[in-house]
Structures are given as C-alpha cells and as structure tokens.
Amino acid sequence: MRLKASFLAVTIALIAAGCGGGGDAPAPDAPAASQDAPPAAAATPMGTASIAGTISFDGTPPAPTPVRMKPECMELHDGPPVSDNVVVTDGKLKSVFVHVSAGLPDGYSYPPPSEPAVLDQEGCMYVPRVLGMQTGQTFRIENSDPFQHNIHPVPESNRGFNESTPNEGDYLEKRFLVVEKAISVKCDVHSWMQAFAFVLDHPYFGVSGDDGSFSISGLPAGTYTIEAWHEDFGTQTMEVTVGDGEAGTADFTFSAAG
Ligand SMILES: [Cu+2]
Hints:
Layout: H1 2-20, E1 49-58, H2 71-74, E2 88-89, E3 92-93, E4 97-102, E5 117-122, E6 125-127, E7 130-134, E8 139-143, E9 149-154, E10 163-165, E11 171-174, E12 180-186, E13 194-200, E14 205-207, E15 213-219, E16 222-230, E17 234-242, E18 247-249, E19 252-255
Parallel strand pairs: 1-18, 1-19, 5-8, 7-13
Antiparallel strand pairs: 1-15, 2-3, 4-14, 4-16, 5-6, 8-11, 9-10, 9-12, 12-13, 16-17
The chain binds copper (II) ion.
C-alpha cells in the first residue's frame, strides 16, 4: 500500500510538473530557487525489483518476562501480560526493522505516502512495537484504551513531544522531518510501554512479522546494503544485488550472543 501510494504521489507530481512548468520557455518570473530543487520529486525511480527474507533466531530465546501493569491495564489482558521485545516463534524473530541503508541512486527524493504511519496504544502496549515511516509522513498515534496515555518520543535529531491522548479513540498526528533510526517512544503514565520509530527518506523498509518475514518492493535494479536491527540483538548488514523484476533474498540470523 505504501509503495502504491508513493507511486501515485509521484505520478501526480509528474502530471503537475507537466502541467505547470514544462515547455521550452519557462515563465520569466519562475523562482530562481527552482534551479536548486532536487531533480527529484518528478523522477523518483520506483523499480520492479524486490528483496525479501526471513529473520531467524539461533539458540534458546530468552523467556518472555512478565510485565507488572497497573490494574487498569491488567483488566485489558486475558492472561498475565509479558514483554514483547523478544518474540520468537518456531525459531523466527519478530520486530526486526529491515531497510535499505545504502545503494539507492543519488539525486532523487521520495515523497512521503499520503496515509499515516500508525502506532496504536492497546492494552497499555504499543502496537506495533517497531515501525517505520518516511520523513514528512503523518505519524498517527491512536488510543484504543479507555484511559489516558501520553506519548513521549525521545529523538536526537528530530523534535520530540510529550502529549496525551486522554480518551479511547483520541489520536495525535505528528511528523518527523529528519532521518533518524530507532527513536525511543515511551509513555510517562505506564513506564513499561516502549516502541521504536524509524524515520527514513525513502520507502524501502519493512519489519519482520510473527513468521520472521519481511519484504521490500519497488526497488530499482542495483546493489544494496540491507540493514537489519533488533533492539536487543544489534544490527547486521548484507549486500544484495537485484536486477529489474528480480526477487532478491536477505535472510538474517540473530542470537543472544549478538
Ligand atoms: Cu500509557
């Protein structure tokens, strides 16, 4: 969906550029600044290659630790809630953020998709725990719980905030404008709540699901560095080359040893 939306935005940008400026004789009052604009917005190289993979966990994963929640939160869980920082199912690791960290062609920009990146507050947990978004994309934080949460990201490069969603159904909409990895998102009401937000200037990222899988599509042909990050097990990278229409593979294995 994200990629489709980006493509749509690019298409619209192309149409707009065609209608507005084109031709051999630019309007005499065209702003000089347009000379400095990235070649970009009108020529984002969405491609036909993809890279997918599975994140495995080697060894015995640490046992989930019980989370001692406030009564208002406990009521929302069927059983005792446990931490979700390490979720391993059949040897596959969830919540690994995977993205293209190098190899994209220079000189292009990728407009943010029109739909928001959504982080929910549900049972006094952030869902999903790890998410990605593009610079300038709407970051919507929703509240599915019948009481107050506050959302307190602590970025280093972006502007942080600390605001509440008092009631069920409330939401905040924010934007991060600068590329930044693993922004810690906390709730000052419920100290155990933790999410990590990644802000990238392109759409080529994914997060491993319950089955450890991720996929990144719409890539131009090229050789890419794929970076995989887990909050407890560190960062790994791998180079993958894909041609037009090709499906590349990037499987990673994490372990408690790092
Ligand atoms: Cu909270």
